[in-house]
Structure of Cytidylate kinase:
Amino acid sequence: DPVPVLTIDGPSGSGKGTVSRLAAARLGWHYLDSGALYRAVGAAAARAGLDLADVEALARLTRDTRIEFREDPDGELRVLVDGEDATDALRTEEAGAAASTIAAIPEVREALKDRQRGFRRPPGLVADGRDMGTVIFPDAPFKVFLTASAGERAERRYKQLKGKGVSVTMDGLLREILARDARDADRAVAPLRPAPGAVHIDTTGLGIDEVVERVLAVVAS
Ligand code: C5P
């Protein structure tokens, strides 16, 4: 039997990351944070000073950048890019914007395809992103599409970043979230769309635990 996959797609701030990690832990499955791959490539491209129009060089960089996930002793997921811990740098809104810019380039997406599919190992995988259910794992038996109002997503991001000591304003965050939504939904390749058959969960006003239960119910059904 093919290894089961639970895809969790949705816009930034919908709670995907936290919910996906908790669901993976409850199921005892592996976890793929596909956004971190795009963030890592975006940061690597910026550091290398690559011209975003040079798609050949970008594709090469995408293939050559080493990206590893490691869980630290207190259970936090760290992202190592070419051997260096880049977790905190990759979490900024700036890194998110850089990711969504290079994520619109078909050659970059193509170069990341096999790497993402490589995370599908027994006993199962929870894959979090924008096109997990539509492009990367179209045959996944379990698909969820998470949403939340833009205001609530900005508020969650605000708390998250504030907690990490990053200085941001609600207004700025809301603007950035709406701009990134538009870029992700309007791009020609792999735009953010619910996969056919995906279970929609609107997380506005719901606590994390409630969302995790609803997501796990999709796997149990
Ligand atoms: O999920 P996260 O906010 O970390 O993703 C950062 C950006 O990477 C997104 O705004 C999106 O443009 C891109 N991305 C994508 N496809 C994925 C995951 C992320 O295009 N599967």
